[in-house]
Model the fold of this input.
Amino acid sequence: QRFRFCGDLDCPDWVLAEISTLAKISSVKLKLICAQVLRDLLGEAIEYEKILKLTSDAKLESGDVKATIAVLSFILSSAAKHNVDSESLSSELQQLGLPKEHASGLCRSYEEKQSSLQDRLRACSLRLSQLGSVHWRVDYTLSSSELQEVNEPLVHLTFNVRDRECEKMTAVPVTLSANKFRVLLAELKQAQTLMNTLL
Amino acid sequence: KLNIGFDTIQHGIEGLVYLLTESSKLMISEVDFQDSIRVLGFSDELNKSLLQLYLDNRKEIRSILGELAPRLPSYHSLEWRLDVQLASRSLRQQIKPAVTMKLRLNQNEDPTAQVLQTDPATLLHLIQQLEQALGEMKMNHCRRIARNMK
Done:
């Protein structure tokens, strides 16, 4: 059977297996655990001790606690990835055997954070490099070893590029004559107009 | 304490290490081990304790030796992205889809990444080739070999 939150594919076996573990926790505590898992997905620190306290009533082993976090992480991020609305998610989770109160608690937490989650996933998408900043300076060349009177303006540009992998900034310096710079600017303005038509 | 020269002790240790690693590597039986060391002309008691040392540590030595083998980079994860090129400096009004991938590999605990880009047709061909490779596992030839290895 195909599920939207799994990207219109079958639900993975391990997720099915852990649904019964989720049902062991009370629905109120499950909603609080969801809030913690959402914090982790949004890049904030997860408070593992709080989760341990919340699961202590259900008498879960340490392996089960980790499995609970893993399955909630999967459900929430996968639903956000495929842009599933919270009612559909709730009905699909109930089809998998999650009790109604648990599903609705989970989906209410999901609904609150759905757009932040999608923004975060968008930011984490594959990106090779990123422009950090641009610095410029305009000089005026008076004279050189080749020609006594040059009298030409010169533009120095430094692009600070950040490599997504190692978070290192590389500086790329470029020097252009006035005419070359005008060409560059005209081309970039054309590209910007094209980008604006898409926004 | 033993009142022997430093060199002698070093040679002795190296000899013992060689004896144990070679025997563990080749997984030789008790009988073969005993026969091999009998040539050295040690006392029976020493031969017996050497044999016991070999048998006790054989498994551990083998597992350590197993980890020394050179390893190829192994798959860690694949990030991908689907883009469409709409225009370039030379040509406007284009529609050119491309898939950009970052293949993350692990080589001896060192993570490396390889960036690849392809058009959808090549990607489909790639998928088809990989599915064919997976399909080979189900062929009779592979099945026969897998059965014999068990």
In short: The mean pLDDT of chain A is 88.
